[in-house]
Amino acid sequence: MADTRVYAALLRAGMAGQATYRASFAVELVGTAMGMGLDFVEIFAVFHQVPSIAGLSFVEVVLVFAIASTGFATADLLVGQSDAVIRHVRDGTFDVVLLRPLSVLGQLAAADVQLRRLGRVSVSLLLLVVVLVRLDLDWTPARAAMAVLAPIAATLVFGALFVAAGGIAFWVVDATEVTSALTYGSAYLAQWPTGVLTPVLARFFTFVIPAAFTGYLPALALLGKPDPTGLPDWLPWASPLAAVATAVAAGLVWRSGVRHYVGAGG
Amino acid sequence: MRAGFRRYAIYRRATLAGAFTNTVFGVIRVSIFFAAADASGGSVAGYDRAALSTYTWVGQGLIAVVWLFAWTPVTLRVRSGDVAIDLGRPVHPIAAWLAEDIGRAGQACLIRFIGPLLVGGLLYGLQVPTRWTTLPLFLLSAALAVVVSFGGRVLVSLIAFWLVDVRGVLTLYVLTSNVLCGLLVPVHFLPGWAQAFAYATPFPSMLQVPLDMATERYGDAESVALLAMQVGWAAVLLAVAVRVFDRGTRKLVLQGG
């Protein structure tokens, strides 16, 4: 109970701070929603030129985009700041976080929650519902479960990427730019079918950095389509499991990072 | 100009990291375009694979040279009042900032332009120029793109004279420019009405035009006409920026008492 109260206090303080400047907050809210709109323009423009990409039509790619975008925006809202943990380390505020008998990640997430990302979360979710209705899928219980689990799994994978990047930052401070290039690069790639990549790159973004599990593979499961680069047909259905495994792995990286931390104080 | 070059040359690690990021995004973007070309019999909107690769990698290299991200130095100087120091200089502040920005762009050419272009060229191949005019046209056009981009950026930054928090405006500006300048997709991919709209703005002059030179999309006469368009936009934006700046400083004096 006491734990919940502390989290609630951190959350309230963070949210109150962000909502103080109402006009700025409104503009930023619109800004994140518009940022998503522009990613969408790219898909729209490519499909203005061609009827299909990697075997998927416009609406089908929009499904990939909607799942990945919902997951990315939600993860960014919750733990998007964890790769900036190194800032807390530099400022010396990280010791304060460690002193409290609470989860380090939980505190950082509660204190740094980025409310303006709600703009993108809500628009992505709306797009996902619209596209699921428009697609006229062959609904089975398994597909229905996948439709609900896919955005949650995507959130887990992107959350894991952010958290793992934060964990790595404790070991190699200079790696931040590289890890964030890979995190945001994955977010960009995840909006498109991974089938556009050469087989080697596609394997990399499936098994090393599991970006394919955030939008493309769950979408294949929902659509009942095979992967053109030759991944087995059962793999799309394993997306939620892969997401859990990724999250566990990221948790271990994070924990080893925090354990590695040595304060500068006397 | 030399100060700008030196100042940005110090951040060597940030430069390398930026080149790495541009390369990662370039790999993904070129893969999407190749898949689109494969889906429509080898070419999209007049671009074959070699042209798509050239468009992507020259574009990824130019991002940092013409600077298509959020840009805050002038905003910060206006907000902190440091702009008063710039006013005391013997040259107009807009001219001084332009000189510094050209120095910054020159420094960016070294690694941030050549890095992604080299990696991308080795991995995906580039279009070999068939005319001797291509290189001079491209270089001129890229230089003009830096000036047009600077004009747009400085104009938006000067809003800080009137608004306290310009972050939202800057974000909207970056998002709009990234679509209309041909960074996300070539402007030629867009539907006709959207292309017409884009060419009514200065944004294609910031990236699409030099990329058209690099991919030899137009003949020499048309290319020279595009250069003239860039010169026109550069002149208009700089002239407006100077006027807005002079207005803004009058307001600044009022505030300072």
Write structural notes for this entry.
The complex is a heterodimer of chains A (266) and B (257). By secondary structure, chain A is mainly alpha-helical. Chain A contains 12 helices and 2 strands; from the N terminus they run H-H-E-E-H-H-H-H-H-H-H-H-H-H. Chain A has helices at 2-19, 22-49, 58-79, 85-91, 94-99, 104-112, 118-135, 141-171, 176-190, 199-208, 216-223, 239-260, and strands at 52-53, 56-57. In chain A, helix 1 runs parallel beside helix 6 (104-112), helix 3 (58-79) crosses helix 8 and helix 3 (58-79) crosses helix 11. The radius of gyration of chain A is 19 Å and the shape is globular. Chain B has 257 residues and is mostly helical. In chain B, strands 1-2 form a two-stranded antiparallel sheet. The longest helix of chain B is centred in the last third of the chain and has 37 residues, at 220-256. Chain B is globular and about 65 Å long. At the A-B interface, helix 2, strand 1 and helix 9 of A face helix 2 and helix 8 of B.
Summarize this structure as a short list of keywords or feature phrases.
heterodimer; A: 266 residues; mainly alpha; 12 helices; globular; B: 257 residues; two-stranded antiparallel ribbon; 2 strands; 74% helix; 2% strand
